[in-house]
Amino acid sequence: MGILFDEEKKIFKLDTEHTTYMAGLSDEGYVGHVYYGKRLKNIGGKYLLRMEETPFTPLVNKREKNSFLDCFPMEYPTGGIGDYRESCLNVRNSRGSMGCELLYEDHEIRKGKPALPGLPASFGGEDEVQTLKIICADGILGLTVTLFYSVFEKEDVITRSVSVENNGTESLSLEKVYSACLDMDNQEFEMLTLCGSWARERHIQRNKVHAGRQLVSSVKGESSHQEHPFMALVTPGTTQEAGEVYGMHFVYSGNFIAQTEVTQFDRVRMVLGIHQEDFCWRLAPGESFQAPEAVMIYSDCGLGKMSRSLHDFYREHLIRSPYKYKKRPVLINNWEATYFEFDTEKLLAIAGEARKNGIEMLVMDDGWFGKRNWDDSSLGDWTVNEEKLKGGLPNLVHKVRELGMEFGIWFEPEMISARSELYREHPDWAIQIEGREPGQSRAQYVLDLSRKEVRDYAYECVAGILRSAPISYVKWDMNRQLCDMGSACLPPEAQGELFHRYVLGLYEMQERLVTEFPEVLLENCSGGGARFDPGMLYYSPQIWCSDDTDAIERLRIQEGTELIYPLSAMGAHVSDCPNHIVGRTTPFETRGNIALSGTFGYELDITRIAEEDRKQIPGQIALYHKFSGLIQAGDYYRISSWTDQKPLDCWEVAAKDGSHALLTCVNVLGRPNVRSIIIKVKGLKPDSYYRLEGTEEIYTGEELMSCGFMVRDLNEDFKSRLYHFVCEENA
Ligand code: DGJ
Question: Global pTM?
Fold first, then answer.
């Protein structure tokens, strides 16, 4: 059993295969954080609660409450009672005062893991996960707060969430409900986050923490291009293979905050949850609020171990799609090929040529409905534009299928164009503040998904199209952030619920979609990669990584994404050159090699690209068929990054049984007078022999891992190479 409670010491011990987490009770009943780190054999370390530490005025009051609370390592700190660090829960009573004090009441340990109502959450069988519920209460407010901890032993992951229940007689306002907190001593930590912008999402950023609060967040209504709902604290000098890493990742797709605070006593408090800006949830007597899930991970073997554990965890315990380990069809998407200028004939020409080259699915992107010839109209009017698609959608789908291909389609169901029939009929369906002109972005407004009739309309538009023809894939896009937060239907005191209700509405729609169309492959997307988050992974096994398809830009974007997400989740396509975003020209081979690490597909006009590029497509697709299983299920190793001034950008995927491994090396810029470069291969069986495929070169696993593999003649700008090592027993 991964969870124990020591009655005498009043300590909970949660064990995964390599880690231990401990929480303990103070004499008063505060739930404090004792330890998180390397696995311990025995329960101990209660002194880490520091209950005997001298307060500020020792002679006056040995245990003055607020000086105690301001340094006690809390499992779930509350606001208003004297802990001046960042709180996780702020509750205002009906007389307008904010204050809440949680004391332990009871606990429960059980096998398995409960689902979170209305929210995406990890899951697992009774033999895979155990859950601890610590029930706390504030007797004055009549509030019960349950802290959930679920222990996934094999993946070294502990998930946390919180539910808040009003068992009192007065209405309460929840002004902040975070999902997790970690109070620890500062070990000279550095903070690692993923940041960027549109077309350069999730670049790795690492800085030393300093006194005060440092955070990443989104108040855009989605997880965002700019910052990511993930934070890790790492000890100085942490590499891929060494150093300690404490990570937190949020299973949520809306506003968030991930923050580290270095306190006056050189301790850190790391918190994660829904951002409190414009958040206020009414809780009437008898009601409860469920906070989303936080994923916590600890590694004492560097970042690589964290990546592999999270990859396994998301593959096994968050992604539900039947496509999880199924080979995804190689698709061609017409966005960069045609933008809005296409018709049946053009799409069939692309499909015909694509089919000849081995591509398996045509995806029709934006522009097929209403009067949408540009991005300034028709969102919400989901009727097929028969001027473009002569003979209608079923006709096109059948013709594509006759070619032997599957068909996929693009939607942006959450939006309403200012120029649309829908807006003329239902202007109040757009999120807006009464009396204030709502801001447009890409000439569109956001539908108020807190309203059931709006969700039903938007869902039925999507479902109606999917019911009308055999469609195998949906790209669910979202191309603007939220603002002017007002709902025509919520009462004034509930307007602060709109951001979260919007996300719940989105989840409800996607749940309906995957329930009614379980065989449809769903890919989430938001103007590229603004909604690449674990919440979305619960519904779609893949997410479009970025609108930037330039091979070199993709190196940083994919490196940051792979740090915490399985490769099988990364939407990655080969596009044409000069690249539409950065104007760069890279070899077609390199574009293919880099997209191969993701879901793989094409985003170009195959009828017009250079013949020497087109000729490479069948070979690239053969590589995809050969390696997709390995890439979906294997162990990922980041070997070097050109952002660290290393000559090669290099990563590897090794089969879990060590039977083979694929090494990808990209030379970004050629350098004068470069000799061969040694790459230490990972994840092989030391005593086995490996052949470098396509050559007579044989190495032992030990040789490749310890002496390294010698990369030669890879010094041209943007040149890349794949190396496949196959264990001779498996050859
Ligand atoms: C943004 C997406 O990321 C693109 O791939 C494309 O689908 C456009 N939206 C269409 O408007």
Answer: 0.98
